[in-house]
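Protein modeling request. Please complete all fields; requests missing the sequence field cannot be processed.
Requester role: graduate student
Desired output: 3D structure, token encoding
Chains: 1
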Amino acid sequence: MIDRKWAEGFAQDWAANWQAKDLDALLAHYAPEIIFRSPRIAAVLGRRQTSVSGLSDLREYWRKALDAAGAVRFEILSLGVGSDALTILYRNQRNDHVAETLVFREDGLIVEGIVTYLRPPAFVMPPS
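Delivered output (128 residues):
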């Protein structure tokens, strides 16, 4: 079970690792069977796909993304904490507002990641 204190520490380390472009430190949190979804995968890899499976494919995607990114800046805006998942809302160096949801297995490794992009201001559901 994930608690708020742990989630805050994880998110700060996660953002620091991205800003340092420390790919090995980032990948150390992911399980070998990781499934990672992002609408940016197709553009970065130059293929028609929106997900990667396994650590080697995730490494390839992130390596290309980091090589093309220049400086990386992730400003954490908010966290959503679930029983086995964490959603990190952040603003990146392109001023994109991003929600990244990470699902953890019992040993603490991430088995699924889902990235979505928000249009500031965040979409608000109309009253029903």
